[in-house]
Write a structure and sequence with these properties.
Elements lengths: L5 H16 L7 H4 L2 H4 L5 H15 L8 H15 L3 H14 L5
Helix pairs in contact: 5-6
Length: 103
């Protein structure tokens, strides 16, 4: 980190601070569950499959998504999974997409 300068140094400092502040969440979740955790599998393979699915959906089918568009799509998916999409659409779709915390 000592060689980084300017904006790169600031980004690295923010990332370091974030990791330091959230280090408790970086521990293998199975360790906290004791004996029950020993039965659970690692998530690496699942994450790899999700990554491949996302890349296939967003890049390989002739589609080109912006980061803003991807974030909005994910917001809609989360609202649907949480059962809040219909209420959000009834209120104001654009407001909910841009400000999901307003619900």
């Amino acid at each position: 980190m000592s060689r980084a300068k300017g904006e790169q140094a600031q980004r690295m400092a923010r990332a370091y601070h974030y990791l330091r502040e959230n280090s408790s969440g970086l521990v293998d979740y199975r360790l906290k569950l004791g004996e029950e955790g020993k039965k659970l599998r690692r998530t690496g393979a699942m994450e790899g499959n999700v990554d491949k699915l996302v890349v296939r959906r967003l890049k390989n089918q002739g589609m080109s998504w912006t980061i803003k568009g991807i974030r909005r799509l994910l917001c809609v998916r989360f609202l649907a999974l949480e059962g809040r999409l219909k209420a959000c659409l009834a209120q104001s779709a654009l407001k909910c997409l841009l400000e999901p915390s307003s619900l």
